[in-house]
Amino acid sequence: MPAPSSFDYAILRVVPRVERGEQLNAGVILFCLERDVLAARVTVDAPRLRALWPETDVETIRRHLEAVPRICAGLPDAGPIARLSRRERFHWLVAPRSTVVQVSPVHSGLCRAPEQALDELFRKLVAVPAPEPSARSKGEKHV
Questions:
Q1: Which of 18, 24, 105, 136 is deepest in the core (most CB within 10 A)?
Q2: Which pLDDT tens digit goes with each residue over 25-67?
Q3: Is 22 exposed, middle or buried (0-12, 13-18, 19+ CB in 10 A)?
Q4: Which is nearest to 72 in space by CA: 64, 62, 83?
Q5: Which residues pair with 6 in a beta bridge?
Q6: How many other β-carbons are positioned within 10 Å of the β-carbon of residue 28?
């Protein structure tokens, strides 16, 4: 089993109305220098975004969020930032901004498998868990 490696990560947040400051976690970017990994997972939850602001341009936000994993992967069609080194891409992606898509401060951790760490961070920080079945949906009666 490999020794743990340090990694840095940041949460991608959508702030539909910057002046209001309301935000929704929409993804995670993870960088592990030792394992040469830069990756991101994102999601777009249109109903939750519209709950924050009914006129949210979900498709534009989707395009911006979906660009992040492409930049992380260094894909040729992901623009000039994708041609930078992994370290430079990470620092560009996590630079503070006051736009609709923002990032949290950078945090650190240890992992044995960066891809698994990314999945776990995404599950804990971004994904919305399925609701527990209520007693009524199980056929029980309340008195």
A1: 24
A2: 999 999 999 999 999 999 999 999 999 999 999 999 999 999 9
A3: middle
A4: 83
A5: 110
A6: 26
What letters, b where the CB count within 10 A reaches 16 and e where it falls short, cover 111-140? bebbeebbbebbeeebeeeeeeeeeeeeee
HEC per residue, the chain: CCCCEEEEEEEEEECCCCCCCCCEEEEEEEEECCCCEEEEEECCCHHHHHHHCCCCCHHHHHHHHHHHHHHHHCCHHHCHHHHCCHHHHHHHHCCCCCCCEEECCCEEEEECCHHHHHHHHHHHHCCCCCCCCCCCCCCCCCC
Residues pairing with 28 in the sheet: 11, 41
For residue 69, count other CB atoms closer than 10 A to its CB: 17
Sorted by where each begins, the domain ranges of the chain are: 17-125
Q: What is the rounded distance in angstroms from the CA atom of residue 11 to the CA atom of residue 14?
A: 10
Task: Answer whether 0.70 is exceeded by the pTM.
Answer: yes
Distance CA 80, CA 62 (A): 20
The residues that bridge with 32 in the sheet, in sequence order, are: 37
